[in-house]
Design brief:
This protein has about 220 residues and is an alpha+beta fold. The protein is built from six helices and four strands.
Length: about 220
């Protein structure tokens, strides 16, 4: 009889643990839908919790519900659409010339793109990275927010595939991810027939990366 009671208790504990695991995965999945709909303010926290989606623990469920309470506190969070074209004085006053190093360089245009019509749009990317955000693997997290004119159109928060020992390395990796994202967006807009106004602007907070990627002799 004692063995039967212990077996029943063990089955009950396994069932409760399985229910909590399913609930945690459901909460994380719901937050992924919120991010797709525009609530990218919880993107980083959802990205970190998704790493434990295979075998979540009780603490992960509490953390997921805590992020949902943040969404509940600000239920009217929304994405504002602003079609005004931003103006950057730094872009207009930039006097660097790379023609000496790359005389035949030009942007690769799609061969079968539509004829551009309508008002031109300007693409702006804001990029940042958190050094060694993951305390287990010491991998950094990249954050990218891309604007079409003054409207956020694309957002990324993901762990980097490599482990960098300095902020320069991880910020350089984040800048590469942002550059590839902007290149993809420029290609998509051209295939839709949307005219693009000049080059894209990328904003970051690491001066060494900015100097390393803008000086031709570096």
């Amino acid at each position: 009889r004692l063995q039967c009671q212990q077996s029943a208790i063990l089955k009950l504990m396994r069932h409760r643990f399985w229910v909590k695991m399913q609930r945690c995965r459901s909460v994380i999945g719901s937050r992924n839908w919120l991010i797709t709909l525009g609530r990218f303010d919880v993107h980083c926290a959802t990205n970190m919790l998704s790493a434990f989606n295979l075998i979540p623990r009780e603490g992960h469920l509490k953390a997921a519900l805590r992020v949902l309470s943040c969404v509940k506190t600000f239920p009217k969070g929304r994405t504002l659409f602003d079609t005004a074209c931003p103006v950057f004085k730094d872009m207009e006053d930039d006097d660097c010339d790379w023609k000496e190093f790359y005389p035949d360089a030009a942007e690769e245009l799609p061969p079968n793109m539509l004829e551009p019509k309508g008002k031109p749009v300007r693409i702006t990317a804001c990029v940042d990275a958190d050094h060694a955000r993951d305390v287990v693997t010491r991998r950094s997290v990249t954050g990218v927010l891309v604007f079409l004119n003054n409207t956020p159109i694309c957002w990324i928060s993901k762990r980097q595939r490599t482990v960098e020992t300095s902020t320069h390395g991880l910020e350089l990796v984040a800048a590469r991810i942002a550059t590839e994202t902007v290149m993809e967006l420029r290609h998509q807009l051209r295939m839709l027939g949307v005219p693009i106004d000049g080059p894209s602007m990328m904003h970051g907070n690491n001066q060494s990366v900015a100097l390393n990627t803008t000086v031709p002799s570096s």
